[in-house]
Amino acid sequence: MNLPTIVKEQAMTHFPRHRYLLSQRAYEHRVLEEAAEILEQRYVRGETFARTENTTEYLRCKLAGYEHEIFAVLFLDNQHRLIEFKELFRGTVDAASVYPREVLKEALNVNEQR
Q: What is the rounded distance in angstroms from the CA atom of residue 60 to the CA atom of residue 32?
């Protein structure tokens, strides 16, 4: 049994019946959204980004639905726990302009709010 089949079978046990009627693309998008929410809750509760695999897993689910380039920042505390995930810049299909001053300003704002 391949992974998409397993994911679909697992999703059918967790999602209400009406969601199966969605198109395949919409269904997959919803599954990815649910996975991102689960990961978000895991990291909000204090799991750390100390390992590359954790960061990769989180960002893969978080960014899977985007059809354009974005520049996002993970703000972490000194124990590698998530403070906030913030999308700072949005671009076209293959590029996003990034302004370092705005990144620094946002980092200072997040630090100030803590």
A: 9
